[in-house]
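Troubleshooting: if your tokenizer reports a length mismatch, compare your output against this known-good record of 96 residues.
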Amino acid sequence: MIDKGRYVRIRRTLLQPDERSSNLPENTKKVPFKMWVKDYLQEDSDLFDVVDVLTTTNRIETGRLKEASPTYKHNYGDFVSEALTLREIILGDFHE
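Known-good structure output:
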């Protein structure tokens, strides 16, 4: 059970694939258009329930509860070995 008032992340499907624009790339047209919102849960709920959250702009958004206390999961992608080569070139220029 996730308590009312907890900071959560919800997801809502805005458009199904057949509702999307016809001028999108093929791989984009095949998937639903979804929205994620992080804000405050308005009622005690379980994961995957359809819930309401109150946003910081005082809007109520509805969606499926995906995560409680969501964290930021940023990264810079996979390792690129060419970056090491560039680093050596750049550092070599400073030592000349």
